[in-house]
Structures
1.
Amino acid sequence: MWRVAPVPTLPTTYPGRVPHETEQQAAAKPDSLSDAERRQALISSLPTADEDSPLAAQLIRDTQRRVTLSERTFEKPRSTRVFTVANQKGGVGKTTTTVNIAAALARSGLEVLVIDNDPQGNASTALGVEHPSGTVSTYDVLLGEVPMQDAVTVSGALESLWCVPATVDLSGAEIELVSLEGREYRLRTALAEYLRWRDEQGLPRLDYVFIDCPPSLGLLTVNAFTAAAEVLIPIQCEYYALEGLSQLLNNIELIKGHLNPELTVSTILLTMSDTRTNLAREVAGEVRGHFPNETLSAVIPRSVRISEAPSYGQTVMTYDPSSSGALAYLQAARELSDRGAAAATTESHR
Ligand SMILES: Nc1ncnc2c1ncn2[C@@H]1O[C@H](COP(=O)(O)OP(=O)(O)OP(=O)(O)O)[C@@H](O)[C@H]1O
Ligand SMILES: [Mg+2]
């Protein structure tokens, strides 16, 4: 695989380096302002975005977003939330969305599992998990050869981000599953057993599970739909964006009717948006028109930093956490978390 040479990091001491105050020194300073007041003061002190200078406007928007987002932590959901990230259209940002939202949540200390359910194994690569053929993987779990805990591996960059890797072996599973008992529920059963096992072992409860799907609607995707309660659909801001979406939604309705009544399309995320083009704006408007409640207000920009992160075995959340792409994914994770909390509150008031 093509790899870019890692960017050299500067030594912490070198001639001319201005010594900064340590975190302890900063924390020891008397401070009469609350965190919220300090954040608001910082935001107000920034100049307003100058639309005549797109680069400056972008920088200002990013700084405002960084300040607003960085100081808040994510709440733990009331129970484990399981998402399937699906769209049978290829290359729309399913894997990128899976790993970056997962990393955004894990970075704030939540326990997050990514199940790579695509023989391409791109999510495993982006999480820095080795996955040559023969690795204990989703394939073995689906075929019932190993319990899920034997396949779970910690990701390369974050200690509370876990991954069940996928190998090319998984491409045979679509056919091998056909003759197996409960073929549509293999992943659901394995995940439920894993969650129970963690509990028995006294391990922390998982807060989020994300299942990355292949670009097809075969048995692998059906297994992901029966294992989850929520579907996250990434939609690329391109011409033909909505093509094939009705087929995906019909399939989800069928699964809901026959195999998993809990399933809902809770989240739609606009990806790879080139905000300078009218097309991106038109697509976003059309998607929001059809799905006003499901579409997140965060929009993921097209960004080189996002696309180069996997070649370092990283998500953009650790590769370049202050880039526009990382901030957009952080905002998407924030909305997804807040909406879950709001849904849980509505539920408890019923
Ligand atoms: N916001 C973005 N900016 C730039 N490049 C992106 C962005 N999101 C994804 N990409 C790149 O686009 C390509 C497709 O993205 P990704 O692999 O996430 O799509 P996918 O839907 O999972 O594809 P597949 O259907 O093959 O599984 C990848 O090379 C990825 O690095
Ligand atoms: Mg993918």
Note: Confidence is low (pLDDT under 50) at residues 1-31.
2.
Amino acid sequence: MGILTRLRSFLFPDSAPAVIGLYGPPNAGKTTLANCIAADWADVSVGEASEVPHETQRAQRADGIEIDHEEGSVTVSVVDTPGVATEVDHAAFFEHGLDEADAQARARGATRGIGESMRVLREEVGGVIYVLDSTGDPRAQVNDMLLGIVEDQGLPLVLVANKVDHDDADADAVAEAFPHYDVVPVSGLTGENTEALYTAIAERFG
Ligand SMILES: Nc1nc2c(ncn2[C@@H]2O[C@H](COP(=O)(O)OP(=O)(O)OP(=O)(O)O)[C@@H](O)[C@H]2O)c(=O)[nH]1
Ligand SMILES: [Mg+2]
């Protein structure tokens, strides 16, 4: 965090850095995108990504992410949250090579994680980046309860159509499914189009 930003936060606590939560279904690429943002601006890592769903089981936060944009700079904290799903079936982990005990443990951790994601949404975040996998059905990936809390709390939201580097990606389908939201197509893996995300972060959360 820059000296001026710190001084401003000290003198004007209301202008304390925004806390942005990355939300979305398991495997949408939240942790990969959080790592991309944190590496671009603070040279830190947020967490481990994995092709096995429900890898993130605790909210993990990076503070002092100072993002430069045309008008100046904005400092935010980024919270990578556990994937939110309506149900967690431990048998789904067998295809990833987990045995019964490991699958049960991962499912328990995933369920706890969903509770933590919701708590953080209610108590800690001031803005949301909702991350969808643009290779899948957009509507099926959105959790109505989560979106309801976002709307009830009046939180600003940016919808990310992630994984646009993938051959099966269809970012237009995400924009068509959610015409009332700002949709930013990106790849957290390759960094493609992240400048547009940084502009959206500055405009919506700055
Ligand atoms: N092609 C492609 N793959 C991606 C991208 N982002 C993430 N992935 C892959 O998608 C899988 C899931 O990534 P994560 O970042 O762990 O996803 P997550 O949303 O944090 O998942 P949970 O923690 O389980 O909720 C991993 O295999 C990543 O390498 C992307 O932009 N493009
Ligand atoms: Mg994760």
Note: The pocket of magnesium ion (ligand 2) is lined by residues 30-31, 55-56, 80 (CB under 6 Å).
